[in-house]
Amino acid sequence: MIIAGAGGHAKEVLDILVSTSPGITMSFLDENKSERFFCQNYPIIQNEEEILAALQEDPRFVLGTGKPETRKAFYDKLTRLGGELFSLRGMGLVLSPSSDCLEADIFSLCFVGPNTHIGRGCLVNTGAQIHHEVEIGDFAEISPAAVILGKAKIGFSCIIGSNATILPKVNIGSRAIIGAGAVVTKDIPEGATVVGVPGRVIKLANR
Fold first, then answer.
1. Is residue 95 classed exposed, middle or buried when 0-12, 13-18 and 19+ CB atoms within 10 A define those classes?
2. Which of 25, 70, 158, 173 places its Cα 20 to 30 Å from the Cα of 165?
3. Per CATH, which fold does 2-85 belong to?
4. pLDDT above 60: residue 207
5. Phi then psi for 17, rounded to 5 degrees?
6. pLDDT digits over 151-187, tens only?
7. pLDDT at residue 39, as a whole number
């Protein structure tokens, strides 16, 4: 299995895979690394030839980085080469049986409530809470301990910072960035950066 990335986030991915899939063979993809091994034990692959060889042995790959744009770039490249996305499930999860999150990574100790939709390539990091009827677009990053309350909508490639809270029925536009600890009480436009309590827009994309 390929883990796409070889930085700090990949170490957390490694821990989950070692705990939940013991004995699995892993290699880490990073085209800019000078090292040849990750955490001293796992080979780092660096070019398309090595990727194709690894996919022949096991077509599955995991997105081993947190940044939405990098996750999408890895996903696009690896699926183009014949890879199949493998979605992580951490330990101590609460996943509603009516949730739709098959193509998202859900890390340990998260809560995902009923009738939720979490898009392809999303990351729901440790301890985050996604409550009833929330919709999250593809490749969004929900950081540790963030809370998204009922019927909120999060656009694609958003970043919701650690310990941020999105109040019920709030809509967050695509590619918005919500700062750590922010409390978002009203709709946020696409590409905005938001900080504070209550959350306020401090920057708009291309402005």
1. middle
2. 70
3. Rossmann fold (3.40.50)
4. no
5. -65, -40
6. 999 999 999 999 999 999 999 999 999 999 999 999 9
7. 87
Determine which one of 9, 117, 131, 132 is catalytic: 132
Q: How far is it, in rounded angstroms, from Cα 157 to Cα 109?
A: 23
Is 117 a residue of the active site?
Answer: no
Q: How far is CA 24 from the centre of its chain?
A: 21
Question: Over the range 130-169, which residues count as b (16 or more CB within 10 Å of their CB) and which as e?
Answer: bbbbbbbbbbbbbbbbbbbbbbbbbbbbbbbbbbbbbbee
Q: Please give the Cα distance from 168 to 55 (Å, whole number).
A: 42
Beta strands in 86-128 (DSSP E): 94-95, 105-106, 111-112, 117-118, 123-124
Residue 21 pLDDT level (bands cut at 50, 70, 90): confident
| Two tokens, residue 69 | 């744009």
Starting at the earlier edge strand, list the strands of the sheet with 84-85. Answer: 37-38, 42-45, 27-29, 2-4, 60-63, 84-85
Q: Delimit the domains of the chain by residue range.
A: 2-85, 88-192
Query: Which residue is listed with tokens 């744009």?
Result: 69
CA distance 44 to 37: 5
**Residue 187 structure tokens:** 């709709």
